[in-house]
Design a protein that fits this description.
Length: 107
């Protein structure tokens, strides 16, 4: 996890709600859950088997109670009440257009 992500999460506070779009196997989501134990995280990916593995890994790593993994595309992930939305490698992999990131803005 980069310094920029860490800085934003520190600014947002102790109980941040984070959406990790295109989380894949959940590595980034699990790292954030470990680093910020009072935060609630949501990992979304279109690949069902990846979500199943991510959920199992989170349970094994002891953070499954703070992470909800769900099958959803980057264009159709649920909710808008996140304090912070991260797109790590998924923007380059899926070629998400920057103008579509307005879906992350507050209403």
């Amino acid at each position: 996890m980069g310094a920029a992500v860490h800085s934003v999460l520190i600014l947002l506070g102790d109980r941040t709600t984070v959406a990790d779009i295109g989380c894949g196997l959940g590595s980034s989501t699990i790292l954030m859950a470990k680093a910020y134990p009072n935060s609630r995280l949501y990992g979304f990916d279109y690949h069902e088997q990846s979500i199943e593995l991510a959920s199992a890994t989170a349970d094994r790593e002891g953070v499954g109670d703070r992470i909800a993994f769900e099958v959803a595309s980057a264009k159709a992930f649920p909710g808008r009440d996140y304090d912070f939305v991260v797109f790590f490698d998924s923007c380059t992999i899926w070629e998400i257009r920057w103008e579509r990131l307005d879906m992350c803005a507050p209403p």
